[in-house]
Write a structure and sequence with these properties.
heterodimer; A: 131 residues; mainly alpha; 8 helices; 0% strand; B: 299 residues; eight-stranded mixed beta sheet; 8 strands; 18% strand
Chain lengths: 131, 299
């Protein structure tokens, strides 16, 4: 109930919510790694933020292009996650157990989500910009 | 008459002593059989079912809890060393959660004032789809049997830390984390003894290999081996949890089954309870106990 009220008050439309949620997997992943004193995902996120901020400051670069780039990155990230599953079938004995057991239901849900949202952003980027 | 009674009493006490000694040796073997049985799924581990492997995080936590209970039952104070670390490469860090594991640490203090520690270690995880009897329920069983003996020593010149390492099969993750911790806390280490693969002896010669021993440790191990008529070979390299200790410069030794007579079932589903040579394990346990005992009796 409270969440619905907050959601309406914040004036976030459904499409903008999806755009915001598209950043969640990488954000959660970064925080998990920070707790493990692992900084590479954070540095990667920082690089993306700097890149998009820089691109948005260039007049010649349209917001549509930036959205397309973000969509492509999400699709690429998701597809690489699927490709890594293939590795298990090719060279199972070389895969450490910690990684092997991370190919669980959540891994596939996040991979499907990332690819789906990436494709949606690429296709609907004009809609995203319209009110 | 009196002499007859005296001689009878002497004979009775002598035979009681022999029986007692046999019971002690038998109970070490029986204990190690029980430990390896539980770790390899031959028996239920506590009341929570049978372990078919010790590879998933939940299986390793269950094993860690069992090991902590066993150490506590032997009078050791225990703690869990839970950790999360980055994956082995930056690329993997982008796609996978951090490594998660749990080392089990048992401690018993020296009987004199000292800051020096002897570290005894064995990894408790196994490869996927393998019961991991020789690799490395055997090393764990040796350490637990040692724990029972060492706690009862009247004189201990050094503090003793037993560590059951997690994730050795994933490139020694648990021992790497442990070494970083003792470097940070500047633990004063006398020596490190790592036990991995100490349950196979097809030719029955009881021979052992020492991997990359520090010179003073090699001398010690050879001296005790001579008295027990155990054949020893020395090789270089680092094939187990001794790797991070060697890299950090700690005096380390890794005794294991003979190089040319090592389990052919390593990392396979055939590494089962039935392949463990318990006589060899018992003999090796007695040998290692003598070695550690000689260190603890040093002045």
């Amino acid at each position: 109930m409270l969440f619905r009220q907050f959601y309406r008050k914040s004036r976030l439309s459904r499409k903008h919510t999806i755009l915001a949620v598209s950043c969640l997997p990488i954000l959660i992943h970064t925080i998990q790694h920070l707790f493990a004193q692992s900084f590479f995902p954070f540095l990667t996120l920082l690089l993306l933020v700097v890149l998009f901020t820089f691109l948005s400051s260039i007049k010649a670069v349209k917001v549509l292009t930036i959205l397309k780039l973000w969509g492509i990155l999400l699709v690429g990230y998701g597809l690489i996650r699927f490709a890594l599953v293939g590795l298990v079938f090719i060279a199972e004995s070389g895969v450490p157990s910690d990684i092997y057991y991370q190919f669980d239901i959540w891994y596939f849900i996040i991979s499907i989500f990332t690819v789906s949202v990436g494709i949606w952003i690429i296709n609907k980027r004009k809609v995203l910009l319209s009110d | 008459m009196f002499n007859t009674i005296l001689i009878s009493c002497l004979l009775f006490s002598f035979s009681s002593g022999i029986t007692q000694e046999k019971d002690t040796i038998a109970s070490t073997v029986d204990y190690q059989k029980e430990v390896i049985g539980k770790l390899t799924g031959k028996e239920a581990i506590v009341d929570k079912g049978h372990l078919k492997q010790r590879a998933t995080y939940n299986e390793r936590v269950l094993t860690a809890e069992y090991l902590a209970n066993e150490l506590e039952a032997s009078g050791w104070s225990t703690e869990f060393h839970k950790y999360r670390t980055p994956q082995s490469t930056y690329f993997l860090d982008l796609f996978f959660r951090p490594n998660k594991g749990i080392n089990v640490i048992g401690k018993v203090s020296a009987t004199v004032a000292t800051e020096k520690h002897i570290i005894l270690g064995a990894h408790f995880d196994s490869e996927r789809k393998t019961p991991g009897a020789v690799d490395n329920a055997s090393g764990v069983a040796l350490c637990l049997a040692l724990a029972r003996e060492l706690q009862n020593f009247e004189h201990r010149e050094y503090n003793i830390t037993i560590v059951f390492f997690d994730q050795e099969e994933d490139d020694e993750v648990g021992s790497e984390v442990f070494v970083k911790m003792i470097q940070k806390t500047k633990l004063d280490v006398h020596s490190v003894h790592i036990f991995d693969l100490i349950g196979w002896d097809a030719d029955g010669d009881g021979a052992l290999t020492l991997q990359s021993p520090a010179p003073f440790l090699e001398d010690l191990y050879r001296k005790e081996a001579k008295s027990l008529k155990i054949s020893l070979k020395t090789i270089g390299g680092a094939g187990s949890d001794n790797k991070p200790f060697l890299k950090a410069g700690y005096p380390t030794v890794h005794p294991f089954e003979e190089m040319d007579d090592s389990t052919p079932y390593i990392h396979s589903p055939q590494d089962t309870y039935e392949t463990v040579n318990f006589n060899f394990l018992e003999q090796s346990t007695e040998y290692i106990t003598n070695v550690i005992s000689s260190i603890l009796q040093e002045k």
